[in-house]
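Bug: token stream looks shifted between consecutive jobs. Job 1:
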Amino acid sequence: MTAPLLDGPRLAPQSGGAAKQLIVFLHGYGSDGNDLIGIGDQWGALLPEAAFVSPHAPEACAMAPVGRQWFHLTLRDPSEYWRGVVAARSALDAFLDAELTRLGLTDKDMVLVGFSQGSMMAMHTGVRRKTPPAGIVAYSGLLAGPEHLQADLTGKPPVFLAHGTHDEVVPFALMGAAESALKAADVPVISHAAQGMGHGIDGAGLAMGVAHCQQVLKGA
């Protein structure tokens, strides 16, 4: 079965020249690409040679008629997360391949930045790409199928995790579980606990996220 073609809003590099880097935002359940692309306006000053893109997830969201989903959520259990990321990966991989080709870039010039369900996709896909991206930023998410991680790894892109301590949607403890699994697989990882934050991204998390992008893209 052919993967659905994804598309979404884009921002050109603030330098005005050709893109030398690519930041891909992957939105959460019930949202769409417009939700995160505005971060590119903020980050562009610090990453002036980066293009930004935020694809709409492939499926209409069952719980939010105007939103999108990477995969359906009903039981919210580990097996459902795993089946979901596996099924959605082909569409995301195809989009990333096409976007990199369009810009004349490689995976080493790219960072995947996800929020919530988008973080699940960023972590799952990023460590399984034929060539891994330069890095991954995962906000308020979880690592699906940690038991599969070491067997599936194709690379070890550095990961930055950020999570609100009072997240009412994806429990804060799941950041610690992701961090432990990544470290056990020798994937470089750093984390930020957003004190008192719910299911969202705080200012410190945004600042640390763009700093992570700058760091992993050095020399790209």
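Job 2, same session, no restart:
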Amino acid sequence: MDQGWKEFAEMTRMAAIAIRQCRPKLPIILGGISPIDAGFIDLLKSYGLLAYLDAVGVHGFPLDWNHWQINDWPKKLDEIRAVTDLPIWVTEVGVSTFGADEVQTFGIQRTSELLIGNADRVFWYSLLDLPMKWEATTRHKECEGSAYYRHFYMGLIREDRTPKPAIKYFNPEMGICQWFHFEDHRLDFAVEWLRKLGVRKLRTGISWADWERPNALQWFDRQMEALAEFDTTITLCFTPPSRGKASNCTSPPLCLDEFSRFAAEVVERYAGDPVNKSPVEPSLLVD
């Protein structure tokens, strides 16, 4: 297991170096960890990785998947602060309406109270429910039972485009984490709602696996142009199955430097370069 994490640390280090060569001042964030494990951060520090990063990300879903209570959020952040001086970004936090809308309403209010001002950035996951005809990106799919189906109800807006009660309590001091699938038909609708909610900080992804598709650049150009008005954190993730050690999108790549080249291509194209003239200063999350 340690060898695998050494390889992950080396891949991330190589990507960070490639990114710095393109954009020396671009903030680079460690992909959000879940569970929130200070020992894991300490391990990455022992490999020298944290010296190449500007912040660490954590994910927390205490009302859905985590084995700790929502009021433990300050304690969880303090555990990470005990092992690193880097800023902490809560890159995903959210509550499913799988059980009841009221749970999400309580959760968004309490999360705002506990995290705004206590973490450097907070991204609520998510704006939109995942369409039921799509798959959630998990390891065991339906074998996970209700834990799997909670993924489909994390949005503040239902699949039928009607808002849930919790949306009234969204605090725009938080950001939104919203993933867009390849050629996602919901993109313009999402942008309209981000504006309505007063969102300024957005986290989304550019998939390496999708980057290899036909017409990929046309889609990602459209996505990033639509999101240009927001302070966007771009998450780099998902190995092309043909380039992984295993044939799935969460596999380590066969060649670590291929991920670095992908990261550099994304930065050169979208991270505030002179060609695209992004009006905001983006950041990059290496996941």
